[in-house]
Amino acid sequence: MFRTTLAFFCLILLAVTMVSCTSQQDETVAEVESLLSKGKYIPDIGTFLQIGRNTPAGYSWDGKDVYFTSGMSGASQVYRLTEERWPYQLTTFEDGIDFFRLSHNGQMAIVGASVGGSEQSQLYLMNPETGRVIQLTHFDDVQMGSVVWAKDDKSVFYRSNEANGRDFFLYRMDVFTGDSKMIFGEVPGYNTIGEISQDGNLMIILNLTSNVNDDLYLLDLSTGKHEKLTEDEGEFLYDNVTIMPGNKTLYLTCNGNDDGMQRMATMTVGSPEVNYIDDGWIDARWETDALIISRDYKYMAALVNEDGYVRLKIREVASKKELPSPPLDGIISGGYFDRNGSCLISYSGPTRAPDVWRWNPNTRDLEQLTHSIYAGIDRNVFTEPKLVHFKSFDDLEIPAFLYLPPDYKEGEQIPFIVHAHGGPEGQFQPHFYRNFQYLMLNGYGILAVNPRGSSGYGREYQNLDNYKNRKNSLKDYKAAADWLIASGYSKKGIMGIRGGSYGGYVVLGMITEYPDLFSAAIDVVGIANFKTFLENTRAYRRALRESEYGPLSDPEFLKSISPVHKAHLIKTPLLVIHGENDPRVPIGEARQIIKAVQKNGGVVDSLIFSNEGHGSGKRVNTITEYRKQVEFLDRNLKVLQLKKDTN
């Protein structure tokens, strides 16, 4: 009786204990979730920057082998998914890889890799099963790219500026002997390879004459003879070219139509006429970023840019029958087909890190193949942006993405960062930005602007900032700051601005043209002096940049738009970040503006990486950079806000 009573008592005690523990555990979980959802328990920015990123790199025609790039090791490397869905790392380059090109039979690959951010990519032949590489080129100061495999997989075609350092001519290399020869050197400039015909006899070449203009050439690989395919009087872009079986019809995208939007079209070899396809498959409001046709010419995929978001549309080439799109809402890129009609894509969004997915439009099977880590951070604390529009000085409507903290209260004036993208012909798209999410959870708002000059909105909009109209794009950023103030989101004294590359110039331009507008400015690899920038940027980039910013033959204009000559006006605390090996915007631009601000008694801090180029690519450097940015912003914006609130 005693033993039965004791056992019964123990069971009751155990049950009570379990209930108590479960209750305490539930309360603890609830507290943690509450803290996270309110943004009060936030890891260091370094933790956020270790959230993963996986993007497609190659796909075997039989659909068995999937390759992707990832920075999970600390630099961008290429991986193969094993049958067990395990990521098998293939490359171990200290500075990561620049590109990966799989052969048609899937038994070889070409890897491009450079050192220290120099972007002087060299070619390596890889065994994609083991990862073993053999270096094929050994140039110290030559860039190679645009690699395309010959149809027989015995050789590769590529572009290289080895002839004179300025022009990109085209070469063919035997991958078994390493022997190479120039196959296209008659037309100077920036030549890239568009497509090889099904029979392997013809090559489509894109010759860029500026950042907004190119021409198409057709090269006979057996005779070496070429012909120009395009004739136009304006500045038009031809892209995404596929030459169909029979070598007569080209599918491509072009913005030479009346509305200047990049649209799907066809051309017939021998005629310069562009025939735009307006059959309702793609909404006429949007541009087509990419057009991909499967190796067997059965399927066509279009990546449609809908105000910065990118959707995937698929249809059959012959019948034009539309096939189902993947049920994914965000940003899609890639588009590798296999022989079964499955499509390998990258899918991401403002609150979702990029991963590799596979979609079969015939069976509607959707499969996530990679799973980026989130470094212990719950995705539920991330915040989506809102697409907004505001009027600039001339009533031009400017699109932008508004990011607000998760606990933002309407009418609250908070520290804000105006974000300036690079290019200038680039477009800010709402990808997954680790630092954005960190900043929002720490009370910052961000306004990412697509000013005039941005791509994605048609030819006219993209050309509105060219040459003599350079400062009009700065006025768009001024309108952005004014809109934030007028809308009650922020106020003077707690607003900052930051940007990289051309966006770095925007930062310097804004704090010289509008010295009293911002209280913190971060210039990352930005242009300070357009004359020295054009003189010192790599020779192969100079002509393309002069067409955008103005020629060296007009030094007075270049001086008038160069912030370094107005450094005495800078009142805003400035942080300058740059890489010693930057081939695009040389390090001298950073040194000039730092010296000029110091000379005039301004406040300037800097972070110069000896082993980086146009932006930090190594994780350890990226973490160092953003810790510096956060500390700088907190000191000049957030702390100031706290002081004002206290007073």
Tally the beta strands: 36
- Structural class by secondary-structure content: alpha+beta
The CATH topology of the domain at 379-646: Rossmann fold
Level-1 CATH class name of the domain at 379-646: Alpha Beta
Characterization of the model:
- By secondary structure, this protein is an alpha+beta fold.
- It has a domain at 379-646: Rossmann fold (3-Layer(aba) Sandwich), CATH 3.40.50.
- Helix content is 22%, strand content 32%.
- It has eleven helices and 36 strands.
- The strands form eight sheets. Strands 29-30-32-31-33-34-35-36 form an eight-stranded mixed β-sheet, with helices on both faces. The chain has a four-stranded antiparallel β-sheet with strand order 1-2-3-4, with no helix packed on it. A four-stranded antiparallel β-sheet has the order 5-6-7-8, with no helix packed on it.
- The N and C termini lie far apart (73 Å).
Topology readout:
Elements: H1 2-37, H2 45-48, E1 54-59, E2 66-70, E3 77-81, E4 87-89, E5 99-102, E6 109-113, E7 122-126, E8 133-135, E9 144-149, E10 155-160, E11 169-174, E12 180-184, E13 190-196, E14 202-210, E15 213-220, E16 226-228, E17 238-243, E18 249-254, E19 263-268, E20 275-276, E21 287-293, E22 299-306, E23 309-316, E24 322-323, E25 331-337, E26 343-349, E27 352-360, E28 365-368, E29 386-391, E30 397-403, E31 416-420, H3 434-441, E32 445-449, H4 459-462, H5 470-486, E33 495-500, H6 502-513, E34 520-524, H7 530-536, H8 539-549, H9 555-560, E35 574-579, H10 588-599, E36 604-609, H11 619-646
Parallel strand pairs: 31-32, 31-33, 33-34, 34-35, 35-36
Antiparallel strand pairs: 1-2, 2-3, 3-4, 5-6, 6-7, 7-8, 9-10, 10-11, 11-12, 13-14, 14-15, 15-16, 17-18, 18-19, 19-20, 21-22, 22-23, 23-24, 25-26, 26-27, 27-28, 29-30, 30-32
